[in-house]
Queue: 2 jobs
Job 1
Amino acid sequence: MNTSRFVVAMRRGGAQTFRRPQLLLAAYSPTVQCCLESTQAVPAARLPYRVKLSAGKHYAWCACGHSKKQPFCDGTHTKKAPSISPFRFTPEKDRTVLLCACKQTKNAPYCDGSHLKVIYQDVVKYLKGIFK
């Protein structure tokens, strides 16, 4: 912050807010780029979805990442990722769970913390771009 902005901020009682570093914004960006037709899952978000599930109800969890109704499937995979089908499941009891949004979980459809790996990869990619 330059000197004149600092002086103005101090006169206002230090009411200036500071922006987050761009590194954090890039790592936690909620938007994800996608391609026309993919054979691999695309992360829909960086953090899992907290969802209340009803016992006995049938759900289809989006495994491709292209659905507009995340974390559930809306049929978009038929055009954008025909080789990936949704994971269908029926919970045994009513409960609130974290459903995976990064699509890298080993315990589909539930989150197992794999999103930390996705976030780490985003940070590394961002840093490599800075230091090219």
Note: The first strand starts at residue 49 and ends at 53.
Job 2
Amino acid sequence: QHHHLNNHELQQLVDPGFQSLDINPKDGLLEHDELSKLFDMRDTDGNGNLSREEFGAHTGLDFLFKDPLFDHFDTDHDGVLSKDEFVEKPFAEMNQNGDSEVSRHEFDHFYTQLLHHINQHHG
């Protein structure tokens, strides 16, 4: 039975995501560089793309929205995420004020909205 999550529950899924990304430095801001390095780290075979498996290792295999999130980012539907799809586009969308970093608020807002949208349309 698929259960539609409310915004509070979505928020609880999103927040640890920010914590796990904001590492270098851990300053409550996501630098473009942090996301770029994360991509390279997750791209374990070094082919410049994230496969579904590599993405799953990033989100956690039991993460409820792993597949719809992958599909959302895979805008050209080639079955892998390029750095452009996973880093550049989402970063630009999250980064409402156009500086080179994303605040926790911007991150939480972006992902809560995104998961809310997915939650309404999948299940």
Note: The beta strands are 29-31, 49-50, 81-82, 101-103.
